[in-house]
Design a protein that fits this description.
single chain, alpha+beta, 6-stranded antiparallel β-sheet, 5-stranded antiparallel β-sheet, 6 helices, elongated
Length: 217
């Protein structure tokens, strides 16, 4: 779990609402008992949403500058079927199977208004999906396609989705997809994926990967 300024505001709001709701619920005033109980429960629910949203932001990583977010190595198992070994920038290794001829990596991005950015709120990102694609259009439409969800919101509140759904937040925070361009899968090819302010960029880093890209282009 990674603490940063970006989680500070929802955490503070959530704690404040929780304490305020408890204060209301614990006061014993018979005349306003029902009103206080309802208001207290509503505020407690709101505090839970803010706190769970803050915890969800902990699953994102800070983007301080352009940095390498993943390395992918491909092993051909059979025609148009590959094992992908993905290593993220924390050193964790994951294995997936992809069908097709090309691959793509998606990430979720959260960017802040310049006012927050100047106060130290760094952009956040989370790897989202790894997918395969066929070069042949008929295969793409009819054959089995593969896509793997890479990371999830662990506490039931998906902050990125809520930002997308609430237009009044868009002036202050922006939730976007970053997507690397489709690149060819080839036996032994290794690619590095970097993330910067412009989004994801994937490049081959060994001769097999470079040869696959040159032959594909």
């Amino acid at each position: 779990m990674q603490f940063n300024q970006s989680t500070l505001i929802p955490t503070i709001i959530g704690i404040f609402l929780l304490l305020f709701s408890l204060r209301i619920l614990l006061r014993r005033t018979m005349i306003e008992a029902v009103f206080r109980a309802v208001l207290g429960l509503v505020l407690m629910a709101a505090s839970a949403i803010f706190l769970l949203g803050s915890l969800d932001l902990f699953s994102y990583r800070q983007l301080l500058q352009e940095e390498s977010v993943a390395t992918l190595r491909f092993e051909k198992l059979k025609t148009q079927t590959y094992r992908v070994i993905l290593v993220d920038n924390t050193g964790h290794q994951y294995r997936y199977h992809l069908k097709g001829d090309q691959w793509q990596l998606d990430a979720r991005l959260i960017r802040w208004h310049p006012i927050f950015a100047s106060a130290g709120f760094s952009p956040l990102y989370r790897l989202d999906r790894l997918s395969g694609r066929y070069s042949n259009l008929r295969q793409e439409m009819n054959d089995e396609r593969t896509a793997h969800k890479l990371e999830f919101s662990p506490y039931g509140i998906d902050t990125w989705v809520w930002i997308k759904r609430l237009p009044w937040l868009w002036e202050w925070v922006d939730a976007q997809y970053g997507t690397a361009t489709f690149l060819p899968m080839a036996d032994g090819a290794i690619y590095e994926v970097k993330l910067g302010v412009a989004g994801l960029v994937a490049r081959p880093v060994n001769d097999l990967g470079k040869g696959a890209v040159e032959g594909w282009q």
